[in-house]
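Changelog note: in this version the structure field was regenerated for every chain. One regenerated record is shown below for reference.
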Amino acid sequence: MAAEIHSRPQSSRPVLLSKVEGHQDVVSAALLIPKEDGVITASEDRTIRVWLKRDSGQYWPSIYHTMSSPCSAMTYHHDSRRIFVGQDNGAIMEFHISEDFNKMNFVKTYPAHQNRVSAITFCLASEWVISTGHDKCISWMCTRSGSMLGRHYFTSWASCLQYDHETQHAFVGDYSGQITLLKLEQNTCSVITTLKGHEGSITSLWWDPAQRLLFSGASDHSIIMWDIGGRKGRTLLLQGHHDKVQAICYVQLTRQLVSCSADGGIAVWNMDISREEAPQWLESDSCQKCEQPFFWNIKQMWDTKTLGLRQHHCRKCGQAVCGKCSTKRSSYPIMGFEFQVRVCDSCFESIKDEDRTSLATFHEGKHNISHMSMDISRGLMVTCGSDRIVKIWDMTPVVGCSLATGFSSR
């Protein structure tokens, strides 16, 4: 159960401060306790644990509480020291933690869902606990009375949730790849809009209320930034992961986006530059460069006595092109393409060497990451996953020194 302490290498990459081990199953969620050398974890092994750093430098569980069902989601409100834990059976349980983090008292159970809880948020102002689940719904319940206020159903599993406390807008990502923006009222809700752009299920969301930006990560290995606050619904695509994006966090102070993927990849994206929007793919019955017909264009194939070609798309201009007119590959980071993608030959010629300079840094977490959270004020990150290990990272070498106060690594 003890944690390992690692020495700090002199390089611009995340520094592994501690490794917390001892869980018997997947760690569903891990959260850093603000202003404390401590971590709260929720696991499929049905335990909630509060780990505090001892003088020896090791983490030991000061609280070890066993639940009736595997823990699937968790949120912690530090000012009121309230923990809400979502379970595989659809229930959410609320606890109150003592000031010294050595005792946890049960408060109440919320029958929020009929199936696994996927995400939870707590709003102190309205005293609502809002959650999504694999029963295809979002629910919001009153924490004073414990009663259900409202539910809204989707066509597929609701997988992740973000909430704007000021406007009472909820963002819900689902397994169909769609994001729904809802306005929650006391006993009802209205659908504002749906966002479609991912080709895989939505795995993570992050809402930045200051700039009114929504970031979404998906199983299609990509991230999309949605400009909710205006600018005509502008979207930016970010592609640099080689596995599904499991967690994202936008650091507003330094205009950087931190993302983690299932294969252990940690990416830090520079969002403090003017990026280009990826073009819509154009449709055509023939190559928009050489005008050769595509294989479904029977009439032109017959008229010109030629065989039809496969259709591809240039990622830079969006034109429909054949293989002969798009023989090159190039990265194009300003448009979010951090690794090489298909471009047409004329676009390839227009891309200069400096245009290929990466606008993100990529690091290896060396474990399967299923969940990540950050304490932005201290530049700290905690990751956890199916390997049952929790890792605490100093991110200040890659997310800007202005954040650095850091976990004490004595």
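Spot check on this record: Confidence is low (pLDDT under 50) at residues 1-10, 402-410. The domain at 298-356 is CATH 3.30.40.10 (Herpes Virus-1).
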